[in-house]
Amino acid sequence: MAKEIERKFLVSGKRWRHVADAGVTIRQGYLVAMDDRSLRVRTYGDGRSCLTLKIGKTALSRDEYEFDIDIGVATDMLRHAVGTVLEKVRYEVEHEGFTWEIDEYGGRYSGLVIAEVELDSEADLPEIPDWVGREVTGDDRYSNQVMALSAATTGPVDEPHPQSG
Amino acid sequence: MAKEIERKFLVSGKRWRHVADAGVTIRQGYLVAMDDRSLRVRTYGDGRSCLTLKIGKTALSRDEYEFDIDIGVATDMLRHAVGTVLEKVRYEVEHEGFTWEIDEYGGRYSGLVIAEVELDSEADLPEIPDWVGREVTGDDRYSNQVMALSAATTGPVDEPHPQSG
């Protein structure tokens, strides 16, 4: 029943790779994707799996319930996902006291890299690493739920995401 | 990922009480209640709690995923239930090789008693106990999901359920 407060940014270039950990692959699908609640199933490359229920409309703060589940069950549940099963590799970077999660997408969203930082309160002001680009907190196009349900085949965004550097 | 095949009946009279176990109280709410999938949270009087995802449109056969969860978490989740949190006492009766579950409803559905028998296959023909009344398998009015979401305040049914005898 944790509250989830996070900020989300586009990632510019590849400099973040030098400070990131080895990363873990993630496959995730939405079994429920509604305006005010969602149920997500996620399998990790290291054998973990979880089921996550999020309830609440605001991006900055909502109720979240997460349960570890068996990976065989999780994989079976992914058959019932609505929309696309998203594929990404999640990396972590420690920066000035905050943990940044960097999601590098594969599949139909290949080329998209997003960084998120979780905050203890909305007043927290993390220092922004220099490989972090434009903030997209609250921009629904970068919501995994919207990305999974989107009918587009070229990606969630209408602008280029330079990955050089 | 079990398949759920069951038949449902109204219960006539009180004779079933003589063959039933002590029963356990159940409180349950729906966090998601859609046409083809539902997410139910249930707390039991004996301290257990579970989260159940059902996927599939047909009443006789659907995919069901159930997870034991912490009762404190489950109780918190009930705050987010859509519609009514149903209250009932569930009894079990063994009869001629089949286990019957009898749900005696409280709260706004007080007076309603439903019996269900789970089958290994749709070809199973359990002997019907004499305290079992009309079959309501597939009758949406007796679906817990419909009962929870119903706006009615007097009960799910348009006919009397005699509880004497």
From TrEMBL, chains A, B:
Coiled coil: none annotated. Pfam families: CYTH. InterPro entries: CYTH-like_dom_sf (IPR033469), CYTH_domain (IPR023577), NeuTTM/CthTTM-like (IPR012042). SMART domains: CYTH. It comes from the Bacteria. Residues 2-149 form the CYTH domain. PANTHER family: SLR0698 PROTEIN (PTHR40114). This is CYTH domain-containing protein. It comes from Mycoplana ramosa (Mycoplana bullata).
